[in-house]
């Protein structure tokens, strides 16, 4: 039986509450792969809880409801969606910006990743 939107919202709320760092991710998403590689490169990958939306088929109720619940939490439509302390902090664009500005390690330290 497919998950309801209400149940997906509750589960996403619990995930964000129970894990300091969360990424909504999909293995088929190149931007998600990029952020995971950055996290791996900087030794913070294991600090993240990755919710793999790619485990659900696109267009199914499960996929749609989980995706919508994360979008509501972030107030943004994108993959990946990255959270720290239950709050949306950005997407791969944020990580790219930090990299390009040379502030990635500083930002990771500010978040408590390093």
From TrEMBL:
The lineage of its organism: Eukaryota, Fungi, Dikarya, Ascomycota, Saccharomycotina. This is Glutaredoxin domain-containing protein. InterPro entries: Glutaredoxin (IPR002109), Thioredoxin-like_sf (IPR036249). Residues 26-89 form the Glutaredoxin domain. One of its GO terms (molecular function) is oxidoreductase activity. Signal peptide: none annotated. It comes from the Eukaryota. It comes from Hanseniaspora valbyensis NRRL Y-1626. Pfam families: Glutaredoxin (PF00462).
């Amino acid at each position: 039986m497919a998950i309801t939107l209400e149940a997906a919202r509750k589960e996403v709320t619990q995930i964000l509450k129970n894990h300091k760092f969360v990424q909504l991710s999909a293995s088929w998403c190149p931007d998600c792969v990029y952020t995971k590689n950055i996290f791996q490169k900087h030794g913070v990958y294991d600090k993240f809880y990755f919710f793999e939306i790619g485990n659900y088929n696109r267009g199914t109720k499960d996929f749609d409801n989980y995706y919508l619940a994360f979008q509501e939490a972030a107030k943004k439509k994108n993959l990946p969606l990255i959270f720290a302390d239950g709050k949306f902090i950005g997407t791969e664009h944020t990580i790219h910006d930090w990299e390009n500005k040379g502030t990635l390690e500083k930002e990771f330290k500010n978040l408590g990743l390093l």
